[in-house]
Design goal:
8 strands; two-stranded parallel sheet; 165 residues; six-stranded mixed β-sheet; globular; alpha/beta; 31% strand; 4 helices
Amino acid sequence: MMDRLPHEKGFHVSWDQLHRDARALAWRLQSEAPEGGWRAVVAITRGGMAPAMIVARELDIRTVDTISVKSYNHQAQTAPVVIKSPDMSIIGDGAAVLIVDDLVDTGRTLEVVRQHMPRAHVATVYAKPMGRAQVNTFVTEVSQDTWIFFPWDMALQYVEPYRGA
């Protein structure tokens, strides 16, 4: 077997699978809710937007905001920088707030986000070992050398059969 680059060890997630996994995340989060329930969801853009919308729907949370942290340039990870913050007059220190993202990889993005909302509950759909300590709740763990291909990164196309045509 040939050696592969980390991004070549792929885990392909369909829209259906993402929906099922985000609902599973919501199911886990309902038992983690503080007294009085969750008061807001903050999605980490862009990957956290779809899971956050599903979690907010399932848990009937109407206040939804975003924080945008840029930490990737295509497939190369860079130093995380906050380029858009949520409305901190509503979010405050994060008490009773859910932060939702699609994936924690190294945890560097979540370290930055936690500085802004230290009391928030962090939830991701997928988690890699290096970043797990930054997450309170997740659904599926994948190996550190796996590249997750999300449905918004993919397109359906015809593929030639192996034999015959």
